[in-house]
Structure formats: structure tokens, C-alpha cells
Amino acid sequence: MSKAPASGMTGLFEADAPRPLADRLRPKALSEVVGQDHLIGPEGTLRRMLDQGRLSSMILWGGPGCGKTTLARLVAEQSGLAFEPLSAIFSGVADLRKVFERAASRRQTGQGTLLFVDEIHRFNRAQQDGFLPYVEDGTVILIGATTENPSFELNAALLSRCQVFVLNRLDEAAMSSMLERAEKEEQRALPVDDEARRALIAMADGDGRYLLNMVEALFNLGTTEKMTPKKLAEVVQRRLPVYDKGQDSHYNLMSALHKSLRGSDCDAGLYWLGRMLEGGEDPLYIARRLVRFAYEDVGLADPAAAHQALMGWDTYERLGSPEGELALAQVVIYLATAPKSNAAYVAYKAARRTAKETGSLMPPKHILNAPTRMMKDQGYGKGYAYDHDAQDGFSGQNYFPETMSRVALYQPVERGFEREIRKRLEYWEGLRRKRRITETED
After folding, report:
1. Is 359 helix (H, G, I), strand (E, B) or coil?
2. What is the enclosing helix (H) or strand (E) of 314?
3. With CB atoms counted within 10 Å of each terminal CB, which end of the chain scores lower, N or C?
């Protein structure tokens, strides 16, 4: 005879716990998926593949909560394929082997298999190679989902056998639609005013799953009083910006900061600095990159830029966070508003390229020291003109190898301090030309 459930536990035995709102609202058809019309709309690439019955293996690349898993499941249903979901975080080679065995058995009965691997970039190179024969011979149709750039994280061999589809971050329209569906499901309105409703969408930061989890928390409060944004912030926790210091967003945001500064957009530069700091980026990494920018993109148009960047770095190391981050913000402002020139950077690259092309040419003997009699006898140092003794402090001698023509590597711009440098170079070139004419006449 079975025992009666303990007091207070009756509800657990009488019915299953209620399903989370995000699970209840999971789309049951492709038409219910929001924000991905470029893939599943009337003219979408994935839609055409399904309509033509020519489904191929693919990689779905997109941020958290944009619908990768849901889309894979619906594709399997519409294609009539058996759905085999795996997570690369919790699965290994043994799990894959079992899936491939089941897929091979189904194939003999005429049914195909769709293998969905979430976080596929978590599999190492050897594990990724294990997919190749089964994808190539059609044992499985593979759909891999990843939040990371596939070109960096997946084997070239696997990528060559898959199409890569980029899923959009859910925009305001898509998330507004999700809120309406949630209210319809719950048969009541969210307890927020219009401004708080917009704030709720902003808090989710493009993640539909996170949005619905916040919505469920609001419904569970059981209140009908409309919250303001301030009250909403007290009730639900704001989502931190999606940012992985070791992966794609790390480089994307740094690129955005660098190019904003190059484009002299001070406000955009400050925004991307704020995004990186809010995402937990190491401020010293930012400081190093700002120094690099000062030399590469400001250069000698403003020689003080490098000093400002170095001082900002030093100040942060002395003060730490949060006080030291103000120094980085000041450097961003200075670099964005400084005159720009990459002439030094271009000259350096040209010098390396020219050195590689010309090989091991000797310097001209007249600029070589002659510490021994033998070197003097060979002409080392002979005919060297000491510039300080020359008229105008400039001898105009040749300092390139004797068998190499003179090369103009540095071309300063007509901006900032480089305008003055250009005048100096033109002055010296004029003197050099005058010396050559005099030597020819003699």
C-alpha cells in the first residue's frame, strides 16, 4: 500500500509545476518567430531552402536569446527530420557516437536526422572533425548554434560544409511583439507605464529569453499598479551588456572605439569606452590601445598625444578604478579632437617593406666609423661632412646605400604640427638640391 504524501507536499503530487513563461511562449511555427525575417520571411534564405526541400547543414550565429534553438527545432519539424539536440558544454564524443548510430539506423528506414549542437564552438578541433564524415555523407543534417564568430572558432573543414546564417539581435519591434504575446498568454496587462515598458525592453538588451523572464517576475508580483522606470529598476535587475573579454565582442568594441577616434567623433569614442568598461574590460588593455592609437593615427600631427596617452595609462595605474577611468576618458577626448596623421605609420611600414626588398646593402663608407687603421685604409669615414660645421648646419650628404636611389618614405600631412615638419623637410630638400647642383657645376 502506498503512503500518502507528506503534509504540505500535496500540490507537487497532484500536478506538475507550472511551465515558465518563456517555455509557454516558445514559437510553435516559423511564422511565430520574431526578428528574423531575413531568414524565414517570404524571401528569406532559410525559408527558400525549406520550401524547395533542399535543407543543408548550417551554423546559426547570434547573440543570447535571439531564437537559435527554437529555429533549429522548427526547421526539424517542418522538414520531417528526427530532432537530436545536444549541448557542447555537457556532451562528449560518446554522446555524439550514440547520436550518429541512431541516425544511421533511421536512415535505413528512410528517415533523416537533424543534429542540433548548441554552443558548438565549445567542442575542440578534434571533436569538430568528428562531424565531418557524417555531415558529408548525409547521415545527419547539422545545425550548430554559436554566439561566437564561426570563422574564428570553427574548423575550416567544418565551415566549408555548412552555410552560416547570422541571426539578428532582437530589436524593439520584435520585443514589443513578445510583450504583447506574454500579456495575451497571461490575460492581463503588464504592471508598467509606457516609459517603463520601453525601459524593460532596453534592459533585456536584445535577449528575448531574458525579457520574458523579467516579464514573468513582474506578473508574479500580483500587482496592478503601473510602475515607473525607477520602480521597475528596483524590482528587476538590469542585464549587463553582452561582452566577452576573450572573444568577438572584445575586438569588435575596441575596433569601434579606435575607428571613432580616427573619425574625430568624441561622443562615439566616449560611448564605446563606456561600453567596454561596463562590460568588464581591463582598463589597462584600453590604455595600451590608446597609446597605440596616439602613435598610429595622430602621430606627429600632435606630438603631445602620445604623452597624453602615456600619462592617462600612468594615472590609471596610480589611482585604479573608478577614479583612474576618468583619465582614460580624458585621453579619449584628447585623441578624438587632435589633428590626425598616419604619415609616421605609413613611413614605418614603407621603410620595413623597402628594407626587405633591398636586402643587405652596406651603408656608404663615408658615414661609417673607422676605429682601426685597416678600416681607414679601406675608406671608412673618408669624406664625411660634420653637419654642425656645414653652412646652415646641413651638409646634404647621402646616407642611403651607394647603390640605392633615395626614397621619400615620410610624407607629412598639412595638419597640426606636421605642417611645420613639412616646411622643414622642404627646406632641407631645397638645400640638398642646391648642394647637388653646386657639386655638378664643380
Report:
1. coil
2. helix 304-319
3. N
Confidence at residue 319, expressed as pLDDT on a 0 to 100 scale: 94
Would you say 308 and 364 are in contact if contact means Cβ atoms under 8 Å apart? no
Of 86, 126, 121, the residue nearest 103 (C-alpha)? 86
The alpha helices in 44-192, defined as continuous H runs, are 45-52, 68-79, 93-108, 125-129, 132-136, 150-153, 156-159, 172-186
pLDDT of residue 2: 43
Nine cell digits for residue 159? 565551415
Count the residues in the chain: 442
Cell of 50: 525549406
Give the dihedral of Cα atoms 72, 74, 78, 84; nearest 10 deg.
50
How far is 422 from 339, CA to CA, in rounded Å?
A: 15
Q: Which residue has the cell 628594407?
A: 355
d(CA 156, CA 338): 42
Give the span between the Cα atoms of 133 and 315, in whole angstroms: 56
**71-115 pLDDT, tens per residue?**
999 999 988 899 999 998 888 888 889 999 999 999 998 899 999
- The pLDDT averaged over each successive group of 10 residues in the chain (442 residues) is 44 57 89 91 89 90 89 91 90 88 92 92 87 90 90 87 90 92 91 90 86 89 86 74 57 89 94 89 93 96 96 95 94 96 95 89 90 88 91 89 91 94 93 79 63
Phi, psi torsion values for 142, nearest 5 degrees: -95, 130
CA distances from 71 to 25, 115, 151, 279, 347 (A): 14, 13, 22, 28, 51
Residue reference for cell 503512503: 3
